[in-house]
Structure formats: structure tokens, C-alpha cells
């Protein structure tokens, strides 16, 4: 029988009987057909594996799936391929470049002429692209901040004038109506853009960039329209008065700019500049995206070192020294560009005193004594507890949203509702009589109302400013400005609003609201400590509420997002104070440890709720007894070295897989039902489509004409198989896949354990890993989803949990 037909028969058996789970041998090790490595572990051993595994694995992958479960993996996310495809075309390109270099050297070119050799040219191009990413990221940040400042200026000045007109409180409600309009309209517009134009622009963007750097292709994450919606959306959200910051989205903006610039073309604008073609590969793009994310942090917080550490801590699975240099350079350029332009804009040209979007201001005296450290540690504990509570509430809200707020209009209405509730809470709080003297603060829009002359209402001034300005007041204001009642109301209002806001269909950052909540309870904590020390008769000279506000803010942020190294450095750079580093480190670390006892960081929580096949840093515990044979998929859809066009087309149309092992099948050897031929290489779906598109059929002898450029041109959005026309006549032709397949793609032995496979995927950014037996025959295939399915239970009972795969 024709081997292709045998393949098809195997596949149709599985398709006809999906409940047999034959595609997923895991937990079916008792089934002798699927226990492949008979030499290694007999069926009795396998049964033991299965038993021990069953006690560890908590859920079956085929249980009923309901929306909003965090133990799902979505089939819709594809993987990026960070492994270089070493096919014959690639090797030819390399050897041509090499021989060119040798000829130049033998001609005795002067050193400066050698600058033109391909290696140096590539290096110069890389540095140039990095520089452009830094400049453009800073430019977007500048546009965002100027837009917010100018629109807010107009909004608050107008509202203040309306409130001032109503000194006798009789017409305050008109100011309230205007306030509602000024808030709801921009929020509705921003939400409309997110819902209908670029849903991936919702939120801070940090989770999706984390996923991208981890190797997951989140649809539309680095598109131009996403950048536009993100930038416009963050302006509307901040201007609309929501409890959001503009800093988190900058990281996403930087990443999109990096992905766009480095490719030298825009698919959205249908423009190909025919430059940087060498960078049109996943792994090259990933390096630039890491740099873009770092540039975003540098621009947002004025923290170039924090940016590098952020990319290191949160993203990169792959890291080397030269990449670190480039990322650092990108952050520096971004920091410098933003600083010089904003200093000019604020009327201090050449002073370089506006390093980031968020400006915490200068702190003169942040000295601390040894005695204070335990207090800061206690604050770390509180930060961890509050952070865990915040994440839990937000998790429940997000699940509720995923289940019940699905309609696009409902999502916009919810965003508008949150902005109206925020305005109403703010408006109602202003009726609390809390006045303070003008001299003690530098508020921009002080409202006197029923306060005595020389005083202004604290609450009006809190709400009549951007969140960044409010955070600055919390960190800097003297101890008498924020009364206890004001702080308590502010803390609860922001806790509720911040928690409700994160996850709405708007572009929003998490850093600033979380820092504000932390600064508010930090000040309250300071009040408590000073009362206690006074009561105990100790000196309260060294206690100042600013320090408590800073530590509270750091602890709260650490408790919510659970970043440690980068967060501490970001805060140290943003505060412009290195001496206060130890209290920050202590509080952030302790907050993370405490928070981790209860749940995971908010970004990770959202990643899991989105069912992304995300690979953690480490393989799950207790997984050394799980072997390749138990996690691989079987049977494998393979292609022969010289394959029929009709069969390739059929496979691409009927199968959704993105990678196919290329095998050699010796006549008569195919009867072994466990193997699929001798392994020769791996070819990807999009490569096959390019081959079909260019009709490189053996019979028409066109394969020599195809170069790597043809493959790069179709990157990253390759045509689908439905867009390729193959005539019935052409279906009988054949293609030689050997020059195009990755002939040295990584494979793994069937005896390998899950942690070994996991480390290969994580460290090398793999997409497919064929499993081979001792005779180099393909017996199965493992992809990211196969290993991402296993997760160590983080809470409750220890052990492994197995995630369910959903189609949505
Ligand atoms: P990705 O979507 O990550 O780019 P993919 O589409 O090739 O890769 P997945 O969607 O991860 O593969 O695979 C879904 C399931 O199909 C996995 O269990 C995987 O092991 C299996 N699979 C992948 N490629 C093949 C193949 N060529 N033959 C048989 N099964 C495969």
C-alpha cells in the first residue's frame, strides 16, 4: 500500500475516534499500543508510572471546560520559533558571505574597507536599529505625556472654575455633571478603540510582552494599530480620570516599535522598505523586542538600568552579554531623548531634570537608622497581604467579566460605568470638610469652597490632578496635609477603583494606582507608628511620613506584581536615591514572599486566565518520572524527503500542525506501527506554503531559484494554504524538501524526562521537538503545549496539575 495512504489511515483512525485520546498518550500508558519504549520500561513499569502519575495529576485534560478557569491552555496561541533554521539555503548564504570575506582579506583591504563586510554591516545595522528604537520609544512617551498634560490642564482648570463659581454649594452638581462628561467621553472613546480596533491593547501590555518573550505568539500583539490604540487609549484613560497610570503601556509601546522598526516593513501600511531583511526572523525580532521593552521602562520611570533588569527578569529566556549591551544602549538612548525633550518642554533646556514620565520629585532626606528596618519589614508583610488580597479580588472580577461581560458594548459600558463611579466617589468625598493651608503644598488647582481664607479643600485638590501628581503629593507632602480620614477614604476608594479598573477594556497601567494605594496606607502606618512611639516615650525625630509612603508604595507594588530585582532598581532610579535602597529591597522581597504564599502575581494571574501556554522558569516539581513517550503526540504527521504536492496540500488543509518531521521510509519497514520513518529534518507549515506558492516542483526544476530572501519576504504574515492555488495537474508533481528543511533541528530521545524536554524548550525557545527511538526513527512529537500542560500546583495540595486544552 502507498505509504501516504497508510499515514492517512492512521490519522483518520484518530479523527474518527477522538474519544480514544490516541493523540495524547499521557495517562494511557496501560494501553500497550501507546507504550512505545518497551526496552526502557515494560508495560508493568508504565502502569506504575501511570499510578504514581494519577496520584499527582489532579485533573483529566478532557473535563468539561468553562470560561474563566485558570487551568486551561488555549489552542489558539501558536508558538514563536527562536531556533535558527539551519537548512541548505541558510548554509549557502553563510558560505557565500564567508568566501566574500576571505576574498576581501586576501586582497589586503585596509581595515576601514573591511567595515563593509557582512558581519560588520550587520552589527552596524543592529546598533542603528537599537538607537532608532530608543529614540522612537521616547518620542511616543513624550507625545503621550504632553497630550495628557495639556488636556488635563484644560479639564481641571475648567472644572475648578465651575466649582469656584459655586462657593455657596448651591450649584456644585453642575460641576459634577461636567466632571462626569469630561471623564466618561474620553473613557468611552478609548474603550471603543480597544474593543473594536485592537483588543490586545487592553491593560498594561506587560503580560502579553512577557508571553511574547517567552515564545508565545499572541495575535496582533506587535502590530502598528495596537501601538496607536495603546498610545491614544492611555491618554484617554488618564484624562478620563480612571485609576490608571501611563507607565505600563509604555513597555508595550516600546516592544511594538522595536518589532516594527527592526523588520523594515509594515504589513498594516503595506510598505516594504527592503531594509533590515536579515532581521526578519523570530529570534532576531525577539532580541529587539526585549530592547524595546527596556526602552519603555527607561522612558516611563527614567530608569535605564531598571529597564535592562526588567527585560532580564520578566522576559528573556535567552540572554547573552552583547544582547545586554544593546538593550542597555537602547534604554540609555530612550532615557536621554525623553529627558532632553521634556526638560525643554518644561522650560529647563539642557538641565536634564525630567528623566521619566513619572516624576517622583527630589527627596532631600531619606536617611534611616537600623532601628527602622524591622518597621519596614512589617510593612513588607502588610504589602504582601494586601497585594494578595488585591490580586484575588481582581482575579474574581476578571473571571466574572469573562463569563458575563462578553458583549463589546457591555465592555464599553462597564468602562464608562467605572469612570462615572470614580467621579461620583470623588465628588461625594469632597463634602467631607478637610482643609489645609496653601503654603504647605504646591497643588495646581486649589479649591477653597467652604474652607477659611488661606486654606483649600484637600479632597478637591486630590482629585483635580493626574494620578502621577497625586502620587507625588502622597510621597512628598508634609505630615500635616493628609489627615487620617482623608487617607482612609482615599485608600479604600483607590483600592476599589484600582482593582475594578485593571482588566477593563481600556489601555491602562498598574504601577501608579498600586503605588498610590501603597503610599496611602504607608502614610497611615506612619501615623500609627509615630503615635505608638510617642506613647512609648521614644523620640519621633527621624520618622517622617514620606519614608513610610515610599516603603508602603514599594511593598504594595511588590505584593501585587511580585517583581523584585527590577522593581527595586526602577524605584531607586525613579526616586533618585540610592541610600534608601535597603528598605526598598527588604519591603519588596518580603511582600513578594508573603504574597506568593497565597496566590501568584497579577500579571501571571492574567496570563493563566488567558490560557496562554506559558513556560515558567523551572520545570514543574515531581516531573522526573514523566517521560517523552508519555507526553508526546502520536501518531506523527510526517512528510517524506521527496513528497507529492497533492499530499502536502492535503495535509496542510486537513491538519492544523505547524511543524512536520521529514523522514525517509525504507520499503517494507513501515509496518512497524510505532515509528514513522527515519528522521531527516523538520519543516514548518509556512515554509511548505512558500514552496507551494513558488511552485518549486521537481518536475519544473525551479528549486535552485528560491533563496532565503523569498522566505524572509513572506515573514511574519505568511499566506494560508487556502490562498494558494494548486491545479489538479500540479498535484501529481513532487517537491524535494531536503534543501528547505531544518536538517539539524533538535530531537529528543524517547527516554528523556519532562524536565529535560522543558529545559530545551525554555532555553532554546523551541517550537517542535520530534521524539526519536534508538534507530533514529520518529516515534512522536512534542510541542510547547504538550509541556506547558503540566504545572506544579502552587497552592493547596502539592503535586502536579494537568491543564486542559481548549479550542478557544
Ligand atoms: P504551535 O501551535 O505551537 O505553533 P503546532 O500547531 O505545530 O505548534 P500545537 O498546536 O502545539 O502544534 O499542537 C497541538 C498538538 O498537536 C500537540 O499535542 C502536538 O504534540 C501535536 N502535534 C504537533 N505537530 C504534530 C505533527 N506533525 N503530527 C502529529 N501531532 C502533532
Gist of the model:
The chain is mainly alpha-helical and about 800 residues long.
Oligomer: single chain
Given the C-alpha coordinates, what overall shape results?
elongated
Strand order of the largest sheet: 8-10-11
Percent strand equals: 5-15%
Keywords: CBS domain, Chloride, Ion transport, Membrane, Repeat, Transmembrane, Transmembrane helix, Transport
Protein name: Chloride channel protein
InterPro entries: CBS_dom, CBS_dom_sf, Cl-channel/antiporter, Cl-channel_core, ClC
GO molecular function: chloride channel activity
Describe this structure in words.
This protein has 808 residues and is mainly alpha-helical. A hairpin with a 5-residue loop joins strand 14 (768-772) and strand 15. Helix 5 packs parallel to helix 8, helix 8 packs antiparallel against helix 9 (248-261) and helix 13 runs parallel beside helix 22. Adenosine-5'-triphosphate binds at residues 78-79, 633, 636-637, 656-660, 767-768, 781-786. The site of adenosine-5'-triphosphate has 18 residues, from strand 2, strand 10, strand 15 and helix 28.
Amino acid at each position: 500500500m502507498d505509504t501516504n495512504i497508510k499515514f492517512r489511515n492512521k490519522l483518520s483512525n484518530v479523527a474518527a475516534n477522538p474519544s480514544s485520546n490516541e493523540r495524547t498518550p499521557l495517562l494511557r500508558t496501560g494501553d500497550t499500543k501507546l507504550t512505545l519504549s518497551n526496552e526502557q520500561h515494560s508495560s508493568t513499569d508504565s502502569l506504575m508510572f501511570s499510578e504514581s502519575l494519577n496520584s499527582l495529576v489532579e485533573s483529566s485534560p478532557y473535563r468539561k471546560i468553562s470560561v474563566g478557569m485558570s487551568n486551561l491552555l488555549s489552542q489558539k496561541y501558536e508558538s514563536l520559533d527562536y531556533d535558527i533554521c539551519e537548512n541548505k539555503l541558510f548554509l549557502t548564504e553563510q558560505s557565500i558571505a564567508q568566501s566574500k570575506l576571505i576574498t576581501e582579506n586576501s586582497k589586503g583591504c585596509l581595515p576601514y574597507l573591511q567595515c563593509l563586510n557582512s558581519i560588520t554591516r550587520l552589527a552596524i545595522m543592529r546598533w542603528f536599529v537599537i538607537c532608532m528604537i530608543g529614540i522612537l520609544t521616547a518620542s511616543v512617551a513624550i507625545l503621550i505625556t504632553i497630550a495628557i498634560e495639556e488636556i488635563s490642564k484644560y479639564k481641571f482648570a475648567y472644572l475648578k472654575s465651575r466649582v469656584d463659581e459655586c462657593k455657596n454649594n448651591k450649584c456644585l452638581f453642575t460641576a459634577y455633571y461636567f466632571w462626569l462628561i469630561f471623564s466618561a467621553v474620553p473613557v468611552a472613546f478609548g474603550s471603543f478603540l480597544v474593543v473594536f480596533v485592537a483588543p490586545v491593547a487592553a491593560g498594561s501590555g506587560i503580560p502579553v510582552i512577557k508571553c511574547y518573550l517567552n515564545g508565545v505568539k499572541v495575535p496582533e500583539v506587535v502590530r502598528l494599530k495596537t501601538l496607536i490604540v495603546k498610545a491614544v487609549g492611555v491618554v484617554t484613560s488618564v484624562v478620563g480620570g480612571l485609576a490608571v497610570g501611563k507607565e505600563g503601556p509604555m513597555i508595550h509601546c516600546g516592544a511594538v516599535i522595536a518589532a516594527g522598526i527592526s523588520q523594515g516593513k509594515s504589513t498594516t501600511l503595506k510598505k516594504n522598505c527592503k531594509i533590515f531583511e536579515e532581521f526578519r526572523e523570530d529570534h532576531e525580532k525577539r532580541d529587539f523586542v526585549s530592547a524595546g521593552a527596556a526602552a519603555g521602562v527607561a522612558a516611563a520611570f527614567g530608569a535605564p538600568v531598571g529597564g535592562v533588569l526588567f527585560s532580564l527578569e520578566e522576559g528573556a529566556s535567552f540572554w547573552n552579554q552583547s544582547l545586554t549591551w544593546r538593550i542597555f544602549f537602547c534604554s540609555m538612548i530612550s532615557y536621554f531623548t525623553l529627558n532632553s525633550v521634556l526638560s525643554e518642554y518644561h522650560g529647563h533646556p539642557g538641565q536634564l531634570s525630567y528623566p521619566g514620565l513619572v516624576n517622583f520629585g527630589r527627596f532631600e532626606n531619606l536617611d534611616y537608622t537600623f532601628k527602622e528596618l524591622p518597621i519596614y519589614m512589617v510593612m513588607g508583610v502588610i504589602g504582601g497581604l494586601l497585594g494578595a488580597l488585591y490580586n484575588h479580588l481582581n482575579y474574581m472580577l476578571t473571571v466574572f467579566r469573562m463569563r458575563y461581560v462578553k458583549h463589546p458594548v457591555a465592555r464599553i459600558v462597564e468602562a464608562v460605568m467605572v469612570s462615572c463611579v470614580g467621579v461620583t466617589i470623588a465628588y461625594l468625598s469632597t463634602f467631607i470638610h478637610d482643609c489645609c493651608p496653601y503654603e504647605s503644598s504646591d497643588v495646581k488647582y486649589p479649591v477653597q469652597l467652604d474652607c477659611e481664607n488661606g486654606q483649600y479643600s484637600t479632597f478637591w485638590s486630590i482629585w483635580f490632578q493626574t494620578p502621577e501628581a497625586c502620587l507625588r503629593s502622597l510621597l512628598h507632602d508634609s505630615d500635616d496635609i493628609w489627615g487620617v480620614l482623608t487617607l482612609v477614604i482615599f485608600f479604600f476608594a483607590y483600592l476599589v477603583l484600582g482593582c475594578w479598573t485593571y482588566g477593563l477594556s481600556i489601555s491602562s497601567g498598574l504601577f501608579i494606582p498600586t503605588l498610590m494605594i501603597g503610599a496611602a496606607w504607608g502614610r497611615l502606618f506612619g501615623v500609627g507608628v509615630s503615635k505608638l512611639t510617642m506613647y512609648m516615650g521614644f523620640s519621633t525625630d527621624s520618622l517622617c511620613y514620606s519614608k513610610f509612603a515610599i516603603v508602603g508604595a514599594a511593598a504594595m507594588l511588590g505584593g501585587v506584581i511580585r517583581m523584585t530585582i527590577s522593581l527595586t532598581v526602577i524605584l531607586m532610579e525613579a526616586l533618585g536615591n540610592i541610600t534608601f535602597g535597603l528598605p526598598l529591597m527588604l519591603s519588596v522581597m518580603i511582600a513578594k514572599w508573603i504574597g506568593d504564599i497565597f496566590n501568584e502575581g497579577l500579571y501571571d494571574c492574567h496570563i493563566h486566565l488567558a490560557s496562554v501556554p506559558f513556560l515558567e522558569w523551572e520545570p514543574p516539581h515531581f516531573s522526573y518520572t514523566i517521560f517523552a513517550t508519555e507526553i508526546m503526540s502520536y501518531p506523527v504527521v510526517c512528510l517524506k524527503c521527496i513528497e507529492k504536492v497533492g499530499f502536502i496540500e492535503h495535509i496542510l488543509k486537513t491538519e492544523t500542525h505547524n511543524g512536520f518531521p521529514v523522514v525517509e521510509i525504507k520499503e517494507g519497514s513501515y509496518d512497524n506501527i510505532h515509528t514513522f520513518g527515519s528522521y531527516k529534518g523538520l519543516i514548518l507549515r509556512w515554509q511548505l506554503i512558500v514552496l507551494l506558492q513558488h511552485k518549486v516542483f521537481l518536475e519544473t526544476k525551479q528549486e535552485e531559484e528560491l533563496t532565503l530572501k523569498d522566505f524572509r519576504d513572506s515573514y511574519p504574515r505568511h499566506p494560508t494554504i487556502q490562498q494558494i492555488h494548486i491545479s489538479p495537474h500540479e498535484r501529481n508533481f513532487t517537491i524535494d524538501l531536503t534543501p528547505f528543511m531544518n536538517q539539524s533541528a533538535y530531537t529528543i530521545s524517547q527516554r528523556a524526562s519532562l524536565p529535560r524536554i522543558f529545559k530545551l524548550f525554555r532555553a532554546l525557545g523551541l517550537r517542535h521537538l520530534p521524539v526519536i527511538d534508538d534507530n533514529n526513527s520518529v516515534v512522536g512529537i512534542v510541542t510547547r503545549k504538550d509541556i506547558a500542560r503540566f504545572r506544579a500546583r502552587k497552592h493547596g495540595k502539592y503535586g502536579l496539575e494537568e491543564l486542559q486544552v481548549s479550542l478557544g
